[in-house]
Amino acid sequence: MTPSVDLASTGYCLANPEREFLVFLPEGDFTTVDVSKVSGSLRAEWMHPVEGTIIPGGSVTGGKSLRFDAPLIGPAVIYLRREGA
Questions:
Q1: How many CB atoms lie within 10 A of CB 34?
Q2: CA distance 6 to 23
Q3: Which domains does the chain carry?
Q4: How far is CA 77 from the centre of its chain?
Q5: How far apart are CA 49 and CA 64, in angstroms?
Q6: CA of 11: how far to CAs of 4, 21, 31, in Å?
Q7: 77: how many CB neighbours lie within 10 A of its CB?
Q8: How far is Cα 39 from Cα 23, in angstroms, rounded to an integer?
Q9: Cβ contacts of 38 within 8 Å, gap of 6 or more
Q10: For every one of its 85 residues, what pLDDT tens digit does the chain have, with 9 covering 90 and above?
Q11: What b/e sequence results for 5-22 when a residue is b if at least 16 CB atoms lie within 10 Å of its CB, and e otherwise?
Q12: Cβ atoms < 10 Å from Cβ of 23
């Protein structure tokens, strides 16, 4: 993965744009991620960067920009990975 300020609205994103994304949300809240180069489904997983708490985020379909609302209070990280990859 390489840094990409353009793929997530927070500006904090490491990505392999056809496979996976790791996005930091410093304030929590939400982010929009451009997963337009991904064909098929992505599995989402949330993590609290201080406590290490992991929360499954379900599955989403790529091919467009998507909004993700953090299920945590405070900073959060979302990991998106193409299913079957």
A1: 19
A2: 11
A3: 2-82 (2.60.120)
A4: 7
A5: 27
A6: 7, 12, 9
A7: 17
A8: 19
A9: 17, 18, 19, 62, 63, 82
A10: 999 999 999 999 999 999 999 999 999 999 999 999 999 999 999 999 999 999 999 999 999 999 999 999 999 999 999 998 6
A11: eebbbbebbbbbbeebbb
A12: 23
Tell the burial category of 56 from Cβ atoms under 10 Å away from its Cβ (0-12, 13-18, 19+): exposed
Phi then psi for residue 68, to 5 deg, are -125, 125
For residue 38, give the nearest of 9, 65, 11 by alpha carbon: 65
Tell me the DSSP string of 39-65.
Answer: -SEEEEEEE-TTT--EEEEEEEE-SSE
Angle formed at CA 45 by CA 39 and CA 51, multiple of 5 degrees: 155
